[in-house]
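fyi for ur records
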Amino acid sequence: MNDPDFISLVPTLVVFALAVITRRPIESLISGSLVGLGIIHGSQFIGGFAGSSIRVMTDPDVAWVILVCGFMGSMIGLLIRTGATSAFTEKMSGYVKSQKSALMATWVLGIFMFVDDYLNSLAVGAAMRNLTDKYRISREKLAYVVDSTAAPISVIIPFSTWGVFFAGLIVANDIAPEGEGLATYISAIPYMLYAWVAVLLVPVVIAGWIPALGSMKQAEIRAQTTGQTVPPGAEHIDKANQSIQPKEGVKPQIPMFVVPMVILIAATLWFDKDFLIGIYITLGCMAAYVMLARILDMHDTFDTIIDGFKTMIEPLGVLVAAFILKDVNDSMGLATYVVSTMEPFLTPELLPAIIFATMGAVSFMTGSNWGVFVIILPIVTSLANSLGADMTLVIGATLSASTFGSHACFYSDATVLTAQATGCTPMQHALTQFPYALIAAAISLAGYVALAYW
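which gave:
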């Protein structure tokens, strides 16, 4: 659309309305996309849907997500089948003696998995769900802790897939010279307020200084009084997670859990932060070892790899539907409309606060974090230059907005994958987490306003 207006909001509003009513993300996302395509193409919306689907499925970034998520499922399947996850959980249980220590252990483990938010969500969720079940911690509470150390940690520790991606964009948009992108990114880390607040809020919530709120309170009461940690309606997700079981007679080994994680992090960092290459190397090493050590035979090994990939089919379906909605929103100029609407209110001092508020809303509505940053960064850069605003602070606010969208939206990749790994639905996870995300967002916004007049 050449001149986007309020109508560009309609598809996303339809998605949210249906999601609240049905609590089913895929159907809501597809319905919203069809409404948007109807606005763009009229009676030819089916052809538009076919074209959008093909664009999404042939997009290298989408292919990367599908392969990364699928083979992470395969890797976790091998960890479970060889008893490695059970061994790690048993080892951790020696140090965990209460609900609070179980959640704090989850938080600390999430910080160590800094290299990628997908690794964090899937590996930490899989490793800790049985242990937290032991202390009657709801899967929703577990999901909140895991998700709060996924994207936020990957943002503020620059040696991650987020750091290399955004450093490249900073150079591509002439904000920093060639070779200085990561240094510029690092200089903006202190101003990525939402990521800092989201991470540091977790121990506060665990300690009980901020009580369980809204749906989270109901989930915790259910888990603690009945022992039902898996929420009603998420049984199929937990069943999928339990579809792979440790092989009988296999002696669980802690190194089988720790060594693959070390290889994955090292290989990812070595190959220019390419997480997909890291997964291929790790999965190949794992498969070779379990066969050579005769832990699993060849058939069992590759059956487990396939079964692990299968467990990711449902979350991948949600993510593909979210990418289709993003494609529709891009065609309708949603991000451009929101920015142009706020432009009359911009001043150099308030630019970071307004960027965080508006871009956080866009990222939340679209479920896109990296994608929104690609579209918005050139516009934000132009605004910052014309107003004479502090570019480092502006970069920090923009990254904070992307992190908020990843953390809060019910169909963002982080939300969907965390829900899958911890054993609840994306809507259950998003609704219970949302009050804490709003608290972190409010503190961050206040911080940007305070910095404006420092």
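The radius of gyration is 22 Å. thats all i got for now
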